[in-house]
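Phosphonate transport system ATP-binding protein
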Amino acid sequence: MIEFKNVSVTYPGAKEPSLADVNITFQKGEFVCVLGRSGAGKSTFIRCINGLQPVSEGYVKWEDKTLSEMTHKETLEVRRKTGMIFQHFNLIPRMSVVQNILTGLFGYKKSYENLLGLFKSSDRLQALEAINQVELTVEPTRRVERLSGGQKQRVAIARALVQNPKVFLGDEPVASLDPGTADRIFQLLKETHVKRNLVSIINVHDVVLAKKFATRIIALKNGKLVFDGTPEDFDDTVYAEIYNHSS
Ligand SMILES: Nc1ncnc2c1ncn2[C@@H]1O[C@H](COP(=O)(O)OP(=O)(O)OP(=O)(O)O)[C@@H](O)[C@H]1O
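Structure:
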């Protein structure tokens, strides 16, 4: 469904590529965790998937279409199909839970409707359903700045859900949460993933979480794809190879 072919990314002024000649394909139903040391290229990789980061060489394909050759409309469609979840949640602090979730519907609306905040009652119903699905028990009208980290991440997931995504992309979604909350958020992501038969590709620092939830683990080192296998294959030898400090 998503294919990387000889993908490299070199940032302006950089001597070395941050992503180097990556070849990989992802299929529906895969729950992929991306591992690697800090600076290995994980965020760059995730952002290439929906074109937030343009590639310097090679291409990324969604089904049979190359991202860089898509029309504006097709690119927007790809973004709409992608639910992104970030470490710092990317919510609007002074807006309420339900208002934040409704922004997930922007991809379905005309821009003037977004500007005027025009939502139908069926939209609000959808937002309330998403709140139920992520088991968020706070008042929908509460401002998100007053929520805990775990609650904020649930709002972010609910916002991604109303988008009706085909793909979940996570850039360190649990990095700022305590271990118990991180585990519960991963549980929720995995359940949603299974229910909706998504492709999920999630950067994570915690190898234990990756091994517990992933159906496939990949690892980057200095921008190169150095591991692609099952959680069982990701053993101590592989761990040492990926996280050691020599190049
Ligand atoms: N916008 C940018 N401009 C220049 N260099 C960048 C940019 N973004 C990332 N880099 C560099 O590219 C490399 C890979 O960064 P990236 O953020 O993809 O790694 P990462 O594995 O996600 O790291 P972390 O786990 O710390 O978030 C790093 O050397 C980083 O400094």
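The chain has a mean pLDDT of 92.
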